[in-house]
Design brief:
The structure is a single chain. It contains three helices and no strands. With 80 residues, the protein is mostly helical. The mean pLDDT is 90. It is elongated.
Amino acid sequence: MHLGRDVTLYVLARLGLVALVAGGLLLVEVPLVVALAVGVVVALPVSLFLFRGLRQRVAEGLNERQVERAKLRAELRGDA
């Protein structure tokens, strides 16, 4: 797994979704700050569904990293 790449891709996907929503609102002449605020609020729940697979890969990668770090810390303490 490439956790760093997956995290970067997930962040860029979410930012792109915010930009897409905000851009759509700007086309109907909503003020920029309001469009960005609505974009952030709308992007959160929508990204949970649209990017489910990517989000799960990131979560799995983080879990694997946590397990590996726990093993390394146990080795350093001499528990392993």
